[in-house]
Amino acid sequence: MPCPKCASERFTKNGFLKQRQRYLCQECGYTYSTPHGHGKPKEMKRQALRLYLEGMGFRGIGRILGVSNVAVLKWMNLAADRLRMHLQREMPKQSKKISVMEWDELWHFVRKKSQNSGSGWQWIEKQWP
């Protein structure tokens, strides 16, 4: 089992913790254990993202996949954070204008009210002089 920190294949067994084998990386000294198997499969999270991008709401996605709508919301927030970090890293410095992105279908419905409120992130483009 390669080291999750440095991906080295040089490791030794280092005892047990809660009936799970522990390992010690010989390259970086990181101690890690076998995966515990909790959480949902990545393919399910990808399917949730595809359904969301097709316009389906969090509750509907949760019903179809058999998970809570809160879990779907957390997956979408994580996807948005990863996308933001990827854009900040990959975009050329002169074209970095987006600071925050909005991922929430409720914004459009709440926005029709007289008060300006909602949840999620806003999409902001800064005008540089």
Please characterize this protein's 3D structure.
The mean pLDDT is 79. The termini are far apart. The chain is an alpha+beta fold and 129 residues long. The chain contains four helices and three strands; from the N terminus they run βββαααα.
Distance between the termini: 52 Å
- Average of pLDDT: 79
Taken from the alpha-carbon principal axes, the silhouette is flat
Assembly state (oligomeric) = single chain
- Biggest sheet overview: 3 strands, antiparallel
Largest sheet, order of strands side by side?
1-2-3
Number of helices: 4
Name the helicity range. 25-40%
Short key terms for the protein model shown above:
single chain, alpha+beta, 3 strands, flat, three-stranded antiparallel sheet, 129 residues
How would the blueprint of this fold be written?
Blueprint: E1 11-17, E2 20-25, E3 31-33, H1 42-53, H2 58-65, H3 69-90, H4 106-110
Antiparallel strand pairs: 1-2, 2-3
Q: Brief description of this entry?
A:
The chain is of the alpha+beta class and about 130 residues long. The protein is built from four helices and three strands.
